[in-house]
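Shipment paperwork, digital attachment
Item: protein structure file
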Amino acid sequence: MSRVVPPDAEGLRRAVEILRADSVVAFPTETVYGLGANAFSKQAIGEVYRLKNRPSWNPLIVHVASVEAARALAEEWPAVADELAARFWPGPLTLVVRRAGHLAGVGADNDTIAIRIPAHEVALRLLEASGLPLAAPSANRSESISPTTAGHVVRSLPDVPLVLDGGPCSWGIESTVLDLTTPVPTLLRPGALSLRVLRDATGAIALRDTETADGAARPSPGMSRRHYAPRAKVVLTPDVREADRSGSPAPAAILTYEGSAPPAYRQAGEPGTETSPAVAGAPGTELVEVLSADPREYAADLYAALHRLDDAGVATIFVQEPPDTEDWLAVRDRLSRAAA
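Attachment content:
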């Protein structure tokens, strides 16, 4: 039987059967594909960490179908959580709250838990059909590029029992994570929802002023120094047209955005992969991925573009640094960790 199945009645039946047997299922969300497991099952959670080769200190986000289900996992549910849930759930926002005492093994090493309601029909149908809260990190090997299609999942995790194929993810980048256990809501991971949008609901948002060392306890995933990385070496550069290629393995590729592409591709048309002549003196030809200059659209295609370049067999990806503005915060975060 195929491991990649449509999210029809039979596909959902098989998925629920696997989840209730304390195994795992990959499923689509609006952000990236998740590797879901019963949040109450130590065996299933252990399988998530095993398949992903995920460090034990990296916590998981729990996905639920309703605000009531989220409250049931929390020891404390502050008023700001209700305000944010009303405005942004279902959606790409994860809230970190105090964890209920009866739930162990899923949250951070402290007493917190990260929760969200995904805005994807297949994810919601799976949550409702299973009746389970699903711990679901991205469905890929730890530190590698997050998957935005079912094909990405299978290539990264060939042993996953079942993948519900819901097509490409619309946001294409992980959820924004806010810590609500601090006096002022604190941004733990920039993501699909911008700070500007969130401030309209919460007022002030604090930013973490220190990095979390690998191996140290943390309340949210996505805080490791190296993450979201392709097999190819990633080099961030202020200008891909003048990047020093000496010492970087070949073949190389360029990842840039409209308005910053090599001259031959400024008028290349729709964003996508092009084959360019030598750029800045590089011998031979290079693949050039030209994404949108809109940060939301760029983010939606970032992981897919990195997957395409990896699949093409390039050894180095020279990436045009995005603007140093708040709108590009999530993209800059992903690229800096991929290049670490």
